[in-house]
Amino acid sequence: MDRIAVPDLPAGRKLKKPMYSRSGRLLLAADQSLTRSMKASLESAGQQFVYLGEWNPLVVARFESNCMDYRQLGAGLLKRLEQDIEAELEQLPSEVNPSGTPLSAAMSASFKRKRSRADIVKAELDYEKAMAEAGQALNGGMEESQLSATAERVALKVMRQVKNDLALLLSLACRKVEGSYFEQHSLNTVALSMSIAAAMGVGEEQVMQLGVGALFMDIGMRNAPPELVSANRRLTPSEHVDIQKHTIAGLNALQNVPGLPSFARFMVYQHHERVDGKGYPRGRKKARIHAFSRIVSVADAYDSLISPRPWRAALHPYRAMETLLRGSESSYDNMVLRGLLHYLSLFPVGSYMTLSTGDVVQVIGTNPGSYHHPVVIVVEALPGTGLERHQIIDFLEEPDRKFAAPYEGPLAAPARSSEEKEQDALPQYGMLPNTVPAM
User: Fold this and answer.
1) 57 vs 24: CA distance, rounded Å
2) Is 17 exposed, middle or buried (0-12, 13-18, 19+ CB in 10 A)?
3) SS3 143
4) Residue 296 reports pLDDT greater than 60
């Protein structure tokens, strides 16, 4: 079974599994549509979480135990956990010296102009499987003894795609699957963290450790006060203080997990620290923040900005990158931001942009290290500009091409030939059909 926050339920879609309340009452049968009014009724009734899947009271009991509100843990326990990890951090250097074979040496980071439909489908299925496994590891329904092995499998799946076709992985991460924020955000942070570390010359084994820690960064959120997790408004200052405790609650969730890399706990604890000392939980400055924590903080922030939340809309990926870069002098490590830009570019994969000619394009690839020269596909061509729909443009090969602005409007539905309808040309370039805004 899966435990889902009610605000994250995909209203307007059929649920493949039956939906139950925590008491075992069947709320919706399998293959039935969850209407918006039904979701609103659950919210108005104060229902904060539901369970999807065949009813199993033992699994539900484990969920409820693992996801107990951390306000019930006691201040003494949280204080001890914080003291222990602070003492551990004092004994270790904050920087990590790259060792072993750099991940970048094994990567195929250049944009692939030709991909088979089978390659696209396989990458999408692998991503979905990794997200499902991430959900099992993060949402409280798994025994502690299984967590480390599961996280390693997820990290390995992501690393394989990082090596094989990073641009395609980033396009998958750009898609936002309704009803799966917690696990998708964690998985996307793994992918972004790995790409940053690769750009910084980190070795494969170290990147695997980074990936495991990145997956668990928000595990403490499963114990956060439910009414704050599902709030559809901005939190008050006192409520935000409560949410900040998820970094220490994450340490509690992992304290009895065998086989975790030592770095994993550092990332869970420090991923909201900022290099200017204005982060939490301890307001540490750069020299006191572990290098892997500084990487995860940037990956976490970028994916958070491009993800819709109940209290705000998602930012356009270009605007999200602008936001991070504006904070480069104060909030984030400049070396880490350069690592993010190296493979994602200033115009991130998934961004819709308007060219100076007025044509609308989507960024589908990058030229690693060349921040201003992405690879795009034309999705809306204007008459007389000389461009055609589905045309690929590499800005490195055509440096005179210029962007005018981010594009955030609707796309016109073009007339398509019967051949295009039967086999859409877009997926072979990694622009998956449901990345396009509703037409």
Assistant:
1) 8
2) middle
3) coil
4) yes
State the CATH number of the domain containing residue 280. 1.10.3210.10
* Positive or negative torsion for Cα 145, 134, 294, 280: negative
Give Cβ neighbours of residue 60 (< 8 Å, ≥ 6 apart): 1, 22, 24, 51
Nearest residue to 125 (alpha-carbon basis) of 94, 157, 81, 148: 157
Q: Please state the pTM of the whole predicted model.
A: 0.88
For 50, half-sphere exposure in the C-beta direction (CA atoms, 13 angstrom radius) is 29
CA dihedral 436, 352, 370, 267 (to 10 degrees): -70
Q: Classify 60 as helix, strand or coil.
A: helix
Residue predicted with more confidence, 93 or 113? 93
Q: How many CB atoms lie within 10 A of CB 14?
A: 11
**What's the CA gap between 150 and 133, in Å, rounded?**
7
Taking the C-alpha atoms of residue 35 and residue 231, their distance in angstroms, rounded to an integer, is 20
Query: Average pLDDT over the chain, rounded to whole?
Result: 88
Q: Are residues 356 and 340 in the same domain?
A: no
Predicted pLDDT at 435 = 40
The count of domains in the chain is 3
Domain check: are 189 and 313 in the same one?
yes
